[in-house]
Design brief:
nucleus (chains A, B), 8 strands, DNA-binding, 179 residues, eight-stranded mixed beta sheet, YDG domain-containing protein At5g47150 (chains A, B), homodimer
Chain lengths: 179, 179
DNA sequence: TAGACGTAGA
DNA sequence: TCTACGTCTA
């Protein structure tokens, strides 16, 4: 197989619990939570249709955590701040299409939040200096409640997905407040 | 510590033998062979001076395997084909400086060669298709014999380092011919 | 072949 | 902040 890989799953990943923390995308991939190294929305094909398996909120899009159970998640693509290319309207392809399909199929989507933590470096030369590190936290399963189109920060059309946390899961409020 | 990390070493890495194969840079990092994810030349600071610890030949620079024991390795930087930026003359900083220092100190440098292998994909949608994968092979310890400056393919000044394989190691000729 | 919510170190 | 011989999917 590939360098780091496990099979893709929809929904729960055995052995991973709400609140579990990870340090990088490669770790998310090894564990099976989120397979893509770069994209925020991961998905798989089931019966000829793509469904979202997981999303990562790395604070690079205008996502909003409305409450401990509602996350407004932005679609991907078209953003000039990321690509340096001309801005474009988002389209229902790849991750965006997968989230739309997941809404219609009411299939669960794993949500991974992120936070910056500061640590002491242990690298020769910068030893002891404070450095920022990304931390990934598994927040549990969500359903895509609705989506809409709006004008984003740069004037282009972006999709917004209302992610609603499934209730039958351990609460995660305290951790979220820290995030 | 970081997501995937072990301490940096000069010379042999315990448990790694000539001919050992790896599938990606993250794996090289975990094993301790080569710590940087992107740069071809890795190095560490010892007594206030940087020394090269390892180099990767990923066939993206004009490196030449002259024989089973001599590799002409190009310095890094300035290359417009990589960065899309204006081409620049290479300078004795970072990796290039480290290789120069390693020559003067006659310290060993780990050499990692690469090869493309083709495999059958096991991803839904492209299952069964032939895909190309990078393979990394540990070739052993080298000494930097000499360096010089020349005009590269694009007209800029590039450094060339003559890497000479240390004799007291298992031979690796057959594998190299396959590479 | 291009594009993407990466990653670490200087 | 910027760069870099990455990595994967479509």
């Amino acid at each position: 197989g590939k360098c780091v890989n496990v099979s893709k799953l929809l929904g729960l990943v055995p052995g991973v619990n709400v609140g579990d923390r990870f340090q990088c995308r490669a770790e998310l991939k090894v564990i099976g939570l989120h397979h893509d190294f770069h994209f925020g929305i991961d998905y798989m094909e089931i019966d000829g249709k793509i469904l979202a398996t997981s999303i990562v909120d790395a604070h690079r899009y205008d996502n909003v955590l409305k409450s401990s159970r509602v996350l407004i998640y932005s679609g991907e693509g078209g953003n000039p701040s990321i690509t340096g290319k001309p801005l474009k309207d988002q389209k229902f392809v790849k991750g965006n299409l997968a989230l739309k399909n997941s809404m219609e199929a009411r299939t669960p989507v794993r949500v991974i939040l992120t936070s910056k933590i500061s640590k002491k470096s242990n690298v020769v030369g910068t030893s002891g200096k404070e450095i920022e590190r990304m931390m990934y936290i598994y927040d549990g399963l969500y359903i895509v409640g609705e989506y809409w189109k709006e004008r984003g920060r740069f004037g282009n059309h972006v999709y917004k997905f209302k992610m609603v946390r499934i209730d039958e899961q351990p609460p995660f409020d305290m951790i979220k407040q820290a995030v």
